[in-house]
Q: What sequence folds into this?
């Protein structure tokens, strides 16, 4: 046996899997021993060190002060699907009563116990009532338990402990084992009280979290003073007591010393100021600390969190916040950090290291040595004994045979692994799994691809390279930093590492760049500012003054993880992997585009293209006339040109026929190369792949492989077990024609992974298809926008832009209106740097025709047959307004039928759950996803829930959406009604369906009818794209295995009456209801509105808050998302303007920053005028809505104030066109009627600068 075989990489949980992957070495045995009794092992590993805890809270708008929120209707987060505990608050909250009791303290609640009682008294100063209702599956076998919470007390729930593998050892959920595990979880908390800390946080249902960026938020911290005894429900009958651990309530109360000790961040004071909230919010560096309710924390974890709190307390103090004496809070934090360092010691990972190497017999000895002689002495004695095999001085009970075996296993490890496990890893607070992965020769399993000697020289490599169970499972920089540079009171730094060490600086840069979710690079000076702020939050003894000079002096060392480039704007910094990804994508595409044209094996003529794009049996073919012929001619021409190109892009707005072009191109491949031609269609999401598959089948294109990019990568070995991408080592796929649909959703990392996975020598053509006007990808970069800019400018023969909107032609042919398409065009904003055919591609100024459409939108009501506009002012009444609009559409608009809402919605959604869809930009607030879903469910399903209950907030007939991917590697069990067999199916994030009961659960309807009978414990979902398939969720769902199977609803599904616009990207709905809020904190973007509008295939209802200003602000260039992403592909540096990224200090809608005229205006002529006004110091606003006395509206190009007088400046560009001249005459008359003497104009000409200057001089003189 070689030494390397003694260490096997950690890969997956489960004892059988671990044994197989870890092998039989000492590290494998140690990990298996630990996993055989997870929590017992964990408590033994922590030894004499303090055990702290996290506590999950439901969001509270008034600081968790033991009172009802002052405006309970506004707190939509506490009833969100990611609230706590579960869906209890959503099910049990009496909002009408809470509104009457709003703001009242716990002592004045008139017997009412708010369902947020588990968390609302976290920082309360008095006792507060709490209660827990027994779950539905007790079936009346127990009753409600009430108790009194002491001041500053929360009820904590250790989900992770309750759902460990041990609970199901017998094939079913054993609640007695769960009880034992819960008690074991709380035992060290009780033992360490009052020396341990409790850290409060909220789950994803919070104001700082969105669908595309979910975040935990830390609320506060205090010292634990008491842990309650276990509690039970009242009147527990024998059956419930036997099956459910005596009717035990799993939650336990933990009280703290607040307000005398601790910190509560003042989120409640800045509830309506999102930017300020963001500035002092604590987002945990390790998200894993906040998973699964309550978790144990080590001293090292606690120090890291306290340092984060310390930074924010100092920020609040500096900002002038007077809600607390922050000096006192700062002093407490500093004192607590110092105390924790003493507990932590120099070797917090010593006991874990012994577990990893299989020397668990030495743990008790090591504990005793740590307590008696200190960490350093214990470390030296333990490893000295391992090296020599002489354990006599350790006072152990080991037999000679055991001593020899342990020492031999240690000595068999490779030298590098032994040095890591002896000198580096014991100084770090890491999990046993992470240590095993790091010490393993199989470096790539943990994401670490360097030799042990390199880690010993620079331990900061671990936070740069390690990646555990998923992409978020990283080792934070702070964890390594505390091990390398401990408190001087504890010990000395690791040899050779200074506070300004280049490796320390590099790792800090890497972490900050990695946390940047969008940009491909950062300006070095901005990065240094962030790092300086990070240093300020550290204790003084470990601060370093890093500067831009370090990038030059340490360039050689930094180059191992960073790439530095000099530009006219200053030095820019990339993650090396990101820079390489940009270059790799460039290289592949440049090689393809410079290949010679493809030689066809069989000829194709224009008649072929026309036959494929012209849908002869369609309504458009029959009624579209010349317009349809022009559209198909455009499509056929693009197809003919692009088919010969090895690389091509097909783009166009929604409804322009991109799908038709894909179909035609695939028809052509088969005609030219034969039916067996190698064609692959990829899409970034499962939902998009499903849709692409359907449209190909509709076109009679069978057997075209259509899968997600991730599935393709996994099949060819380019995904690690943790679902991160490999950069080498996979199999190259051989493809003939590769079509990438919805390419605008492709982020840089995914694009590069795809490029690496293909053997490009076998590829004849790559076709990218997408709509760059939609939202940019959720991940890093703007790949599709960059490809469009490059191809359209340099290789126009490879670029095809569809311009004629067939959807608009079709709605006109049907007599259904065309306002959706016309309005969506207002939100197409070009990057001003992007050029087409060598011409400047500036957006055009708002035309008079567009102003007419804006006026119709402003008037509200029926804009066209396909578009209605409803204005709303009161957020509390929005849901009623929305539901009324939906039900009017469901009834066809001509019926006053007041039948039961549940019947109306069930009938309307039965055939197509996506027929009526609410879309909103945000998850929270009263206009957000969670509040609107709750309102719809209450309106429709309240009665059903009262009779049969709900599972994680979902009940029968609810409309739901899958929130995670269940691909082939992790399918879900379903029932195929066609074959009458159980089967595994793939379900993808974003699929929508309706909840039904299983046929064998028909007694539920008897319960609904009579109120007596079984309650809901499982259900089936019929997804839109899975006809005949019902997918099971809940407890004891049908499946093909031996034991009962549970599919947690909370992990898979959410309500889907309303979904976020981000979630809807790539989908299509017959009728949409789009919410446009007037939010200054979260301005909506042009891409967001465009995406929302173009989801509707037949009709859209816009629900706009207050007035049209909310909609018009989204058109402003400064609110666009794609131009504000840094990238540098194809030789062009796209740098987002810093003034736009940090505009809080100056920005108001319509205000133009002097340095940003080219980024905020729509035409060069307008830039000339704006620059002149800036030079003269004349204040102005751009396209500021102007309302007349009769309620009509115009958008003057500039609203100018000179010497106290206001003028409206219109720049006229097309007076030579008859229609424009007529429209301008009407607009001019409007100004003369309502604002006489205030209109000034300039005309488009070569002397615009001189004319504008003369006008300004004239106005200044007159004033």
A:
């Amino acid at each position: 046996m070689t030494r390397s075989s003694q260490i096997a990489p950690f890969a997956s949980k489960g004892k059988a899997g671990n044994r197989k992957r870890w092998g039989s070495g000492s590290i494998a045995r140690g990990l298996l021993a630990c996993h055989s009794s997870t929590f017992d092992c964990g408590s033994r590993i922590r030894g004499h060190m303090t055990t702290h805890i996290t506590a999950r809270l439901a969001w509270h708008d008034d600081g968790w002060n033991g009172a009802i929120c002052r405006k309970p209707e506004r707190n939509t987060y506490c009833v969100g699907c990611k609230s706590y505990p579960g869906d209890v608050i959503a099910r049990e909250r009496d909002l009408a009563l809470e509104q009457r009791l709003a703001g009242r303290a716990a002592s004045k609640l008139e017997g009412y116990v708010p369902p947020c009682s588990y968390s609302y008294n976290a920082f309360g100063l008095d006792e507060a009532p709490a209660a827990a209702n027994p779950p539905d599956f007790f079936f009346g076998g127990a009753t409600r338990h009430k108790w009194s919470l002491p001041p500053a007390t929360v009820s904590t729930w250790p989900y992770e402990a309750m759902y460990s593998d041990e609970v199901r050892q017998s094939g079913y959920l054993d609640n007695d084992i769960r009880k034992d595990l819960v008690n074991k979880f709380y035992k060290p908390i009780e033992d360490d009280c009052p020396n341990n800390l409790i850290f409060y946080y909220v789950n994803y249902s919070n104001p700082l979290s969105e669908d595309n960026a979910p975040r935990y938020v830390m609320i506060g911290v205090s010292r634990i003073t008491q842990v309650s005894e276990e509690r039970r429900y009242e009147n527990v009958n024998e059956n419930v007591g036997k099956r459910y651990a005596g009717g035990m309530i799993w939650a336990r109360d933990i009280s703290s010393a607040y307000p005398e000790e601790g910190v509560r961040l003042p989120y409640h004071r800045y509830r309506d100021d999102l930017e300020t909230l963001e500035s002092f919010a604590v987002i945990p560096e390790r998200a894993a600390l906040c998973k699964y309710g309550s978790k144990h924390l080590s001293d090292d974890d606690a120090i890291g969190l306290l340092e984060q709190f310390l930074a924010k307390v100092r920020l609040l103090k500096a900002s002038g916040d007077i809600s607390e004496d922050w000096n006192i809070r700062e002093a407490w934090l500093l004192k607590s950090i110092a105390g924790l360092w003493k507990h932590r010691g120099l070797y917090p990972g010593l006991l874990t290291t012994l577990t990893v190497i299989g020397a668990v017999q030495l743990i008790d000895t090591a504990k005793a040595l740590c307590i008696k002689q200190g960490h350093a002495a214990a470390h030296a004695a333990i490893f000295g004994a391992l090296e020599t095999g002489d354990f006599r001085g350790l006072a152990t009970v080991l037999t000679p045979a055991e001593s020899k075996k342990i020492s031999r296993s240690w000595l068999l490890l490779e030298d590098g692994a032994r040095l890591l496990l002896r000198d580096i890893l014991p100084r770090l607070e890491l999990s046993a799994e992470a240590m095993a992965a790091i010490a393993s020769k199989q470096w790539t399993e943990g994401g670490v691809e360097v030799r042990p000697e390199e880690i010993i020289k620079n331990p900061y490599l671990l936070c740069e390279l390690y990646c555990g169970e998923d992409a978020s499972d990283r080792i934070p920089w702070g964890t390594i930093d505390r091990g390398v540079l401990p408190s001087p009171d504890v010990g000395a730094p690791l040899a050779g590492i200074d506070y300004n060490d280049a490796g320390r600086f590099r790792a800090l840069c890497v972490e900050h760049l990695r946390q940047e979710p969008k940009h491909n690079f950062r300006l070095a000076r901005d990065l240094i500012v962030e790092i300086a702020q990070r240093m300020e939050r550290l204790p003084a003894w470990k601060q370093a003054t890093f500067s831009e000079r370090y990038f030059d002096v340490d360039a050689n060392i930094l180059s191992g993880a960073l790439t530095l480039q000099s530009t006219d704007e200053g030095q820019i910094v990339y993650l090396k992997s990101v820079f390489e990804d940009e270059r790799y994508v460039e290289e592949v595409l440049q090689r393809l585009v410079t290949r010679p044209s493809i030689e066809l094996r069989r000829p194709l003529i224009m008649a072929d293209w026309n036959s494929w794009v012209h849908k002869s049996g369609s309504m458009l073919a029959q009624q579209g006339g010349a317009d349809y012929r022009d559209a198909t001619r455009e499509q056929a021409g693009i197809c003919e040109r692009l088919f010969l190109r090895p690389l091509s892009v097909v783009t166009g707005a929604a409804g322009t026929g991109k799908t038709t072009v894909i179909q035609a191109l695939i028809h052509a491949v088969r005609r030219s190369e034969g039916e067996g031609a190698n064609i692959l269609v990829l899409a970034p999401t499962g939902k998009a792949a499903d849709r692409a598959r359907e449209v190909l089948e509709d076109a009679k294109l069978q057997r075209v492989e259509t899968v997600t990019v991730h599935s393709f990568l996994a099949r060819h070995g380019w995904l690690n077990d943790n679902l991160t991408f490999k950069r080498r080592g996979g199999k190259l796929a051989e493809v003939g024609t590769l079509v990438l649909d919805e390419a605008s959703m492709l982020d840089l990392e995914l694009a590069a992974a795809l490029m690496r996975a293909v053997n490009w020598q076998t590829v004849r053509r790559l076709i990218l298809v997408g709509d760059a006007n939609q939202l940019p990808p959720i991940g890093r970069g703007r790949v599709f926008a960059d490809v469009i800019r490059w191809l359209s400018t340099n290789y126009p023969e490879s670029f095809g832009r569809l311009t004629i909107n067939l959807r608009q032609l079709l709605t006109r042919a049907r007599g259904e209106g065309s306002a959706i398409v016309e309005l969506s065009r207002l939100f197409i904003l070009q990057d001003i740097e992007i050029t087409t055919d060598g011409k400047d591609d500036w957006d055009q100024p708002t035309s008079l025709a567009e102003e007419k459409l804006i006026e119709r939108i402003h008037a509200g009501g029926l804009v066209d047959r396909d578009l209605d506009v409803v204005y709303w002012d009161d957020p509390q009444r929005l849901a009623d307004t929305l539901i009324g609009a939906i039900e009017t559409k469901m009834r066809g608009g001509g019926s006053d039928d007041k039948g039961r809402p549940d019947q109306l919605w069930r009938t309307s959604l039965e055939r197509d759950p996506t027929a009526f869809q609410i879309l909103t930009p945000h998850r929270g607030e009263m206009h957000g996803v969670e509040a609107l879903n709750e309102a719809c469910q209450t309106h429709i399903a309240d009665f059903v829930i009262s009779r049969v209950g709900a599972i994680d907030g979902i009940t029968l007939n609810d409309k739901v959406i899958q929130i995670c991917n269940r691909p082939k590697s992790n399918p879900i069990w379903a029932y195929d009604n066609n074959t009458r067999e159980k089967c595994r199916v793939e379900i993808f994030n974003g699929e929508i369906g309706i909840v039904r009961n299983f046929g064998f659960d028909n007694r539920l309807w008897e319960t609904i009818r009579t109120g007596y009978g079984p309650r809901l414990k499982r259900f089936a979902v019929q997804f839109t794209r899975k006809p005949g398939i019902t997918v099971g969720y809940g407890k004891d769902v049908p499946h093909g295995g031996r034991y009962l199977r549970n599919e947690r609803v909370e992990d898979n599904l959410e309500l889907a009456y309303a979904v976020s616009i981000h979630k809807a990207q790539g989908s299509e709905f017959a009728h949409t209801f789009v919410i446009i809020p007037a939010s200054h904190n979260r301005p909506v973007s042009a891409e967001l509105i465009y995406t929302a509008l173009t989801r509707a295939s037949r009709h859209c209802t816009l629900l706009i808050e207050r007035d049209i200003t909310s909609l018009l602000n989204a058109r402003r260039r400064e609110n666009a998302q794609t131009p504000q992403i840094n990238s540098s592909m194809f030789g062009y540096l796209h740098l987002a303007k810093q003034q736009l990224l940090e505009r809080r200090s100056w920005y108001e809608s319509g205000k133009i920053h002097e340095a940003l005229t080219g980024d905020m205006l729509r035409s060069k002529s307008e830039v000339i005028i704006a620059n002149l006004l800036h030079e003269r110091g004349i204040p102005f606003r751009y396209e500021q809505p102007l309302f007349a006395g009769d309620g009509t509206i115009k958008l003057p190009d500039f609203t100018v104030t000179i010497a106290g007088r206001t003028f409206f400046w219109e720049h006229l560009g097309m007076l030579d066109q008859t229609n424009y001249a007529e429209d301008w005459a009407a607009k001019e008359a409007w100004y003369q009627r309502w604002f006489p003497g205030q209109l000034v104009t300039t005309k488009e000409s070569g002397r615009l600068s001189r004319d504008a200057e003369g006008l300004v001089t004239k106005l200044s003189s007159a004033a």
